[in-house]
Structure formats: structure tokens, C-alpha cells
Amino acid sequence: MRYERKYRVEDLGLAPARQAIRNHPASFRPLFPDRQVNNIYFDTPNLTAYHENVQGIAQRKKYRVRWYGTGPIIQPRLEVKIKDNQLGDKQSTAVQNFDWRSLSTLQREVQQHAGNFAVLRPTLVNAYQRAYYATPNGRFRLTLDWNLRYFSLYTGRQFTRFNLRDESVVLELKYEAIHEADVDRIRQFLPFRQTKSSKYVTGMNLLGQLY
User: Fold this and answer.
1) Helical H runs in 30-115?
2) How confident is the prediction along the chain (211 residues), in pLDDT tens digits per residue?
3) Do 207 and 124 meet the contact criterion of CB atoms below 8 Å apart?
4) Is 124 exposed, middle or buried (0-12, 13-18, 19+ CB in 10 A)?
5) pTM
6) Is the torsion defined by CA of 29, 24, 10, 179 positive or negative?
7) Helix (DSSP H) and strand (DSSP E) numbers for the chain
8) How many CB atoms lie within 10 A of CB 33?
9) Alpha-carbon distance 32 to 9, whole Å?
């Protein structure tokens, strides 16, 4: 299990956030090249995952299919994010390649993995650019996300184009629970306020899909 400390930074921009990471005394360095992250989130018809997050339910799950890059959808993976109070874990499983005309096939595959846990349907697509950083010893990682874009599958069944943007920048500090005692030395040099930040919740709120 690991911690994911999130910092939603508004009205600042990408360059100052990158500079703060470069100036950090822990010597964060790029882990590998920046890339685009794409997600399809799945939820129940009553948006159980959304409401549990908003209400702060301590133990919850979130289902998403993730792939990388801007070309055809290849090597997608189903990720089940597991939250247990402040700690989190992720289970990842390969799913078949798909296109936007075969979401029903993808939905059935996701449902097979979910079993009887819940009836799931695709609700939201998002994409963003991500940069990856790590300390030299690899104990602490930072991701920096920007150019966040969203499209609703809650009302539209096939993706056409992203129709809403979030101008914020999101940082996430990630580390295993065994390193919690050392994290203050990292956090005190991040000039941002820690926040609760879920891209799924943000996207659903911005798109106004809740009834």
C-alpha cells in the first residue's frame, strides 16, 4: 500500500510547477519522457464511485481503463484503484485492444473482471499530459499533470472530442507506507497546499452530469 499526496495548483501554470520540482533539495529527476495518459472511468448507474469519493468513504474502489499516447488504443489495462483510509493500492490487468465503436465489448470485459461487485458502465473519458520524477533512491516519486481534458460517456455513448478543459496543474507525491516517517522532509519544500483531488470527481462535476 502507498500514499498519494495530491496538490491541485490553480492560477499558477506549468512552468512554475516544473521549476519547484527542479529546485527541490531532494533532487527529483525525470524518470522517463513525458507522455499522454488516457482513461475511461467506469461507475454504476447511480454513480456509486463518485458519491463514495465525495462523501469520503474510507474503503472504496474505482475502475478505469488506461492507455498511453495519442495514436490508436493499444495495450490498454484495467486498473482497480483501492482506497483504504489514506492508503491506496492498484490492481492492473490487461484487456483487449478496442476502438470507440466497441465500448460495449470493453464494458463486458470490465464487468467480467468486476464480477458481482457492481454493475459498471463507462461514464467519463479524460486525457492529460504527465511528467514523471523520482528521487535518486527511488523512494519518492512525483507526477505532474496538465492539459486535463474531459468528455462525458454518461449521456453520450461514443467519444467524439474532448469538450471541456481544466486549466489546473495537479501534482501527486507517491511513496510506500514504510517511508511515511521521512515524508516531511519532502513535503516541506513543495510550495503548494495539499488538497483532495480526484480527476474523476473533477470531470463529473465540470461536465454537470449529476442529477
Assistant:
1) 48-55, 103-114
2) 999 999 999 888 899 999 999 999 999 999 999 999 999 999 999 999 999 999 999 999 999 999 999 989 999 999 999 999 889 999 999 999 999 988 999 999 999 988 876 899 999 999 999 999 999 999 999 999 999 999 999 877 778 888 899 999 999 999 999 999 999 999 999 999 999 889 999 999 988 744 4
3) yes
4) buried
5) 0.93
6) positive
7) 5, 10
8) 7
9) 23
3-state secondary structure of 106: helix
Q: Residue 79's closest CA among 48, 113, 103, 117?
A: 113
The long-range contacts involving 54-58, CB below 8 angstroms and separated by at least 24 positions, are 54/201, 58/83, 58/84, 58/85
Cell numbers describing residue 191: 510550495
Domains belonging to the chain, first-starting first, are 2-207 (3.20.100.30)
Nearest to 42, CA basis, from 134, 129, 104: 104
Q: Where are the beta strands (DSSP E) in the chain?
A: 2-9, 29-30, 35-43, 59-68, 77-84, 87-94, 121-134, 141-152, 164-166, 169-176
Question: Which position has the grid cell 465500448?
Answer: 103
* Among 86, 76, 68, 81, residue whose Cα is nearest residue 194: 86
